[in-house]
Write a structure and sequence with these properties.
CATH superfamily of the largest domain: Glycogen Phosphorylase B
Radius of gyration: 21 Å
Structural class: alpha/beta
Strand order of the largest sheet: 3-2-1-4-5-6-7
Order of helices and strands: EHEEHEHEHEHEEHEHEHEHEHEHHH
Largest sheet: 7 strands, parallel
Number of domains: 2
Shape: globular
Helix content: 25-40%
């Protein structure tokens, strides 16, 4: 198939450190290219890919801006239409509004965000688009979408390393935002009497929270703050951690860091919000808890996380969240999209 994939203009694909959407886009593109598909990736000029790279912006345009997004996706869709691709896969809602630039090319769109009533109403204006939800929980909240398939994220397992003999610390990796719960993770580690390593950065909208809840906590004796980390540092951190803590307080559509931890054999201890119950296999790839106290109990020395087989945890994650599975699911979707287009084109003739 000839496939155009439009990433974001805000970070390189794959990202240097933070950037879940761009990481998953990279995994999909590299997997499709390896399978022999002709893939064009529309991303920033400093992106790295084995596919054909096209870029409007030479460097990432951070922080995100809606006008930059519209400029990027409209340019990409125009380029894709001229390239005679079979379909276009986009990752920004702005692309739907300018999809008329290539009306004869099927459009696939992945939802990367939590439920937003305004966006859901917006999607209702584009019933011809083929939507991808990244979890069953996310799909259940988008009741108005007739064409929507669930495809979990997946990554290349070979980039993640297993250690069956972890160090003594637990870790938190992610945005330092209230809904992610870094302050709760730090408090749970303190209550359990174990050290914690915290990786991530504060975005502008979360600075007040960070000053109020994290400034004092990250200076505690049991805390080691790492700042934002890249792929190599993330893998070593997860590989040697006793557990990854995810005390989220929002309905997160998919926790990419959760599956990255599992692929290192690192159990996940998380609150049961959003996609967590469908990603974490209780007692196999992690422990789902209801409270800070439950999290502290699970990660205490000799607690539940120490009874999880790290090798089995990784094996289950490889089976469910590999790049190969991600690519195969998308290949089936793309084939169905193209088949439905062919049928719609032929149906008036058949009716005649």
């Amino acid at each position: 198939m000839r496939i155009a994939v439009v990433s974001t203009p805000f970070l390189s694909t794959p990202p240097r450190d933070y950037g879940g959407t761009e990481l998953v886009v990279s995994e999909l593109v590299e997997g499709l290219a390896a399978r022999g598909h002709a893939v064009k990736l529309f991303a920033t000029g400093d992106s790295h890919t084995t596919a054909e790279l096209r870029a409007l912006y030479a460097r990432p345009q951070w922080p995100p801006d809606p006008l930059t997004d519209v400029n990027h996706v409209s340019w990409a869709l125009h380029q894709a239409a001229e390239s005679r691709v079979d379909l276009v896969h986009v990752n920004s809602a702005a692309a739907l509004a300018v999809g008329g630039l290539c009306p004869k090319v099927p459009l696939v769109y992945t939802l990367h965000h939590p439920h937003d009533p305004g966006l859901s109403a917006f999607y209702g204006q584009f019933p011809e688009v083929h939507y991808v939800a990244i979890s069953d929980d996310q799909r259940s909240r988008e009741t108005g979408l007739a064409r929507c398939r669930v495809i979990h994220h997946g990554v290349d397992p070979s980039r993640y390393e297993l250690s069956e003999h972890p160090a003594d610390y637990v870790c938190f990796v992610g945005r330092l935002a209230p809904e992610k719960g870094p302050h709760t993770a730090i408090d749970a580690a303190a209550r359990a009497g174990v050290p914690i390593r915290v990786a991530g950065q504060v975005h502008s909208q979360d600075r007040a929270f960070a000053e109020r809840e994290l400034t004092g906590r990250v200076n505690a004796a049991h805390v080691r703050y790492l700042g934002p980390i890249g792929m190599a540092q993330k893998v070593s951190l997860l590989r040697d951690a006793r557990a990854l803590l995810a005390p989220i307080t929002w309905d997160e559509p998919f926790g990419l860091i959760l599956i990255e931890a599992m692929l290192c054999g690192c159990p996940v201890v998380a609150f049961p919000r959003g996609s967590v119950p469908e990603l974490v296999e209780q007692g196999t790839t992690g422990i789902i808890v209801e409270s800070l106290e439950g999290m502290a109990s699970a990660i205490a020395p000799g607690g539940a996380v120490d009874r999880i087989s790290r090798r089995r945890c990784r094996a289950h994650a490889r089976q469910r969240f590999s790049r190969a599975r991600l690519v195969a699911d998308h290949e089936r979707l793309y084939a169905d999209v193209l088949a439905s287009r062919d049928l719609s084109v032929r149906s008036p003739i058949a009716a005649a």
